[in-house]
Amino acid sequence: MTGRTAVLTGMGVVAPNGIGADDFWKATREGRSVLAPIDREGCDRYPVRVAGLVRGFDAASFVEERYLVQTDRFTHFAMAAAGLALDEAGLTVDDPFGIGVVTAAGSGGGAFGQRELQELWSRGPHHVGPYQSIAWFYAASTGQISIRGGFKGPCGVVASDEAGGLDALAHAARAIRRGTEAVVAGAAEAPIAPYSMVCQLGYPGLSTEERPERAYLPFAPDAPGFVPAEGGAMFVVESESAARARGARIRAQLAGHAATFTGAARWAESRAGLAHAVRGALAEARCAPDEIDVVFADALGVPEADRAEALALADALGDHSARVPVTAPKAGVGRAHCGAPVLDVAAAVLALENGLVPPTPNVTTSDLGLDLVTGFARSAELRTALVLSRGLMGSNAALVLRRTP
Question: Which UniProt key words apply to this protein (predicted)?
């Protein structure tokens, strides 16, 4: 390993509360909640009534027709976000083998797959398109982004639960340290379609509350569970030296990461696993617990899970856990599975840049001993952020971001 420092030089966001980093940050810092009743065709008979929906997204404005016809909405999001990130980074492809792609996905192309299977059942195999074989697949976004950009470097897909969003960035950072020129990394999901919704009904902790303002209240005493969402974010990851040499804007440093596994829905056990991940990320970042200036919490919205997260922070950060500002912007947009933690990374980068901790929408009280930011954004001197994620099947991850001079 070369020891090169990995930094973020481009960021693209497609979220329920905004498309593009500027709109996303405006809504996030204002604590705007966009959770709404699910109005997608075929989704009205299920007990999950509220979600975070990306509205006003015109895929054709971001993705060429030849890619649109062979991909699902989750890949449209990923390609759009990747395009925004690459445009911002101003990255040129001198050596296609020097640029890789890594994404994470949990739900895959459910809407595309359902449509083609319905054609199979109702009209026969001759009416199933050839892209059914690839559009539903978890690797579709990585493949299409690499094909579109001509990127032939190390590419991969992370299948590690919701925490895979953070793990994808860690994979990118490791590739940079090993000599890869740049990596496009992140995650995007589109699980709000009938087949995808049915697949989610078995998840413990899924909220069935019908009132959007009450459907997702992480860390609140009466938290009813979480609501699903679509969207995600993509980043351009480079070495700091290369970014500075070409005069690129460095948005943040990927300072440290660690991951653990504690088993599906074993929320009490996630305390130890998450704490271990935090300690590992701090160690890799060479960061003391009291140097963390803000925590972007996993915030499942299940009382047992929220308690375990609060205790994990106390275990890993000590007394500092009661003083450091903690926030969960996803309370206003929902949990976009693998896209959820990378949206938190985007929010954390913007918080570091603006010296502002965004609030946790809809939540007014918490009794878990955390300094939970609610109501309004809080001004603060921010240099280092900790982003946490847990998957519904038991993965845990922690990522340390550092603002660069």
Answer: Acyltransferase, Transferase
